[in-house]
Design goal:
354 residues; alpha/beta; Rossmann fold; 12 helices; globular; binds iron/sulfur cluster
Amino acid sequence: MTPDATLPDTIVTVRDLEKTFALKRQAGTPARTLRAVRQVSFDIARGETLGLVGESGSGKSTTGRMLVGLIPATSGRVRLFDEEITGTNAQQALARVRKRVQFVFQDPQGSLNPRMRIGDAIAEPIDVAGGRTRHDRQLRIQELLDTVGLPRSCGDRFPHEFSGGQRQRIGIARALALKPEFIVCDEPVSALDVSLQAQVVNLLIDLQEAFGLSYLFIAHDLAVVRNISHRVAVMYAGAIVEVAPRAALYATPKHPYTQTLLEAIPRPDPRHRLAANVRGELPSLLSPPTGCTFHTRCPHAFERCRNEVPQLKALAPGHEAACHLNEPMTAPPATASFMTAAPIAASLEDRLRD
Ligand code: SF4
């Protein structure tokens, strides 16, 4: 795998990305706006995987879809390669990068036409792009089936004849058809059991090494993104609350939400009692909490958290977190249920060595 944090060739640049949805006005009530993504910024380098993790409703899939133009951004900038795909010339710019960017869906069954043979489904992007002879097209289908580890005879069969893991391989083969450079993988293993998850993640790692691909790998579970990611960003209520190189995030998490997600990862030690999931529900994005949006669930919240929005601050090279506890001048009140990150990080380090 490519070493962490030394990848200078940036191919994806996201700045202050926002997505709001206007909800239908009910009779006698004011119009309401749901702010699904708030001020999201990150870069992805060539050959790099950025893991994007958060609970359902955190805005991670919406972010991924804006990156490939599946839904338009409300504001902010997305630059893919040398093209600005947001703003006035978004459609023309998207058309120019279309072949270089692909998307792998969570539900491969839903993204495959049940009446289309697998070979034709894989070749569909090739057919849309045009310019290939029938013979070339057939050779490319066989090459793609080989690449994702499926027998060539699969090309004549239909989606219902395959398992979930095989269907996800077909989805990946289809995404590779036009030789992309950047792929958004939107929870590609969430619907699979654990052994199949590992197979698909390993396949994506192999493909990255073979073709120099870059990924935005979206998941709701920090365990899933650990093996594939060079860096990990954690989203909560539409915003990134922590981003760090993989080793730093798993060993020394700096945000209480990340710490709780890590504590909830199962481990093979029977003496270990699994920590409870993050307590409470993700707040409504129609009326998010004031101050830090995590304060309604945070075990360390104190008065300032209810009033002041914490900003992402650099704490180490490549490691940023948005929490008042990380600021040197913050003195938690004596009454707060406060616990520093250090002992949590130490226990996680022990655990990850298991
Ligand atoms: Fe918890 Fe306050 Fe930090 Fe938010 S700012 S994560 S509420 S301690």
